């Protein structure tokens, strides 16, 4: 008998218990005919600001838009440099490029996959204006060290928390530690919406006010534009869906953490690098990512055994053709390049059953003999 299929993510099982509540909230939006921003978005912004322990939340149409808004709010532009990680989704670098600035890639901590503060310090130049710290796979960056670098060199600190809703660093929510936090609510994220959505968080009243204007065509009064802005507005339907789902996020996070700790126990002793939390960090395990030699062979074998996997970022950003002019070569950033070669994401979602997890672990143990 073939093994049951275990998907990398089962969004349907996550959302189906909330289908009626989501449908009712969406129906309210349709009946109101207020489809962009409006009461549903405002209510979600207030709730997410409180959840993320920030003074302000600005709802936008994607995590990419939130990151771009952050660099625009800092008036970063041509001639400036923004230090970030190469082992991330492209948006972490796009936010500098969109402003005509240069992304500067530095290596990662091989244990956490997050940006290495020592490498950041070594890369600072007089042209550096900001650091984009990516809380990758839900694990917080070493924020104390990064904040110290920013204070020493008068830099801004942008948190890319697209995969880290609710994660904590020394008791503090990520996204509320640096100058601004950027979140994504893409359907695969820990807090999903029904399409594209994002948010920017900050404690700074001035940044928040300008951010609300810039997301709305640089306008606070309709048809009057203080500066050139963007159509980065959140749709009301997304605000409605997020408002329904946000109260479930803590429970989903607890389920992810339980599954991750069980993976730790069941996979201990196998020739895999397992994810571990750094001291003072509480990961939300957006993904459970292991490093495995001969990654592609392992993925193919697991598929034959009914286990679905994924691998994010198979080519690090510093080696992407779009950034060839920056001059990075193979071997420039070895920890990031190893992660790109060897990373495998095992199934991880809050509604995953113990039987499904046992299937994954049995297939891995069989593979390694």
From TrEMBL:
GO terms for biological process: polysaccharide biosynthetic process. The modification N6-(pyridoxal phosphate)lysine is found at residue 189. Pfam families: DegT_DnrJ_EryC1. Transmembrane segments: none annotated. The keyword ATP-binding does not apply. Keywords: Aminotransferase, Pyridoxal phosphate, Transferase. InterPro entries: DegT/StrS_aminotransferase, PyrdxlP-dep_Trfase, PyrdxlP-dep_Trfase_major, PyrdxlP-dep_Trfase_small. The active site is at residue 189. GO terms for molecular function: pyridoxal phosphate binding; transaminase activity. Belongs to the DegT/DnrJ/EryC1 family. This is DegT/DnrJ/EryC1/StrS family aminotransferase. It comes from Ruficoccus amylovorans.
């Amino acid at each position: 008998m073939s093994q049951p299929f275990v998907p990398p993510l089962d969004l349907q099982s996550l959302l189906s218990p909330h289908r009626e509540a989501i449908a009712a909230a969406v129906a309210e939006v349709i009946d109101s005919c207020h489809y962009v921003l409006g009461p549903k978005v405002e209510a979600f912004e207030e709730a997410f600001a409180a959840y993320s322990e920030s003074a302000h939340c600005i709802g936008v149409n994607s995590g990419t838009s939130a990151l771009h808004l952050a660099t625009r709010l800092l008036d970063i532009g041509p001639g400036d440099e923004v230090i970030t990680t190469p082992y991330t989704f492209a948006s972490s670098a796009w936010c500098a490029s969109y402003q005509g600035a240069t992304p500067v890639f530095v290596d990662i901590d091989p244990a956490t996959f997050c940006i290495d503060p020592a490498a950041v310090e070594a890369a600072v130049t007089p042209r550096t204006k900001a650091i984009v710290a990516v809380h990758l796979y839900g694990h917080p960056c070493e924020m104390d060290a990064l904040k110290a670098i920013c204070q020493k060199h008068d830099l801004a600190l942008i948190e890319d928390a697209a995969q880290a809703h609710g994660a904590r660093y020394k008791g503090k929510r990520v996204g509320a530690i640096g100058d601004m936090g950027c979140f994504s609510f893409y359907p695969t994220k820990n807090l999903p919406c029904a399409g594209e959505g994002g948010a920017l968080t900050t404690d700074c009243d001035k940044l928040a006010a300008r951010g609300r204007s810039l997301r709305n065509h640089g306008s606070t009064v309709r048809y009057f534009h203080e500066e050139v802005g963007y159509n980065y507005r959140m749709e009301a339907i997304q605000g409605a869906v997020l408002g329904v789902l946000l109260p479930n996020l803590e429970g989903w996070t607890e389920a992810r953490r339980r599954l991750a700790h069980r993976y730790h126990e069941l996979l201990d002793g196998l020739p895999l690098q397992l994810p571990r939390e750094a001291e003072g960090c509480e990961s939300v395990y957006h993904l459970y990512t292991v490093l495995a030699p001969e990654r592609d062979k392992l993925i193919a074998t697991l598929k034959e055994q009914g286990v679905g996997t994924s691998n994010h970022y198979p080519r690090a950003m510093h080696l992407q053709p779009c950034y060839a002019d920056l001059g990075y070569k193979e071997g420039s950033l070895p920890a990031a390049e190893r992660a790109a070669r060897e990373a495998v994401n095992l199934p991880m979602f809050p509604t995953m059953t113990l039987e499904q997890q046992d299937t994954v672990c049995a297939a891995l143990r069989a593979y390694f003999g």
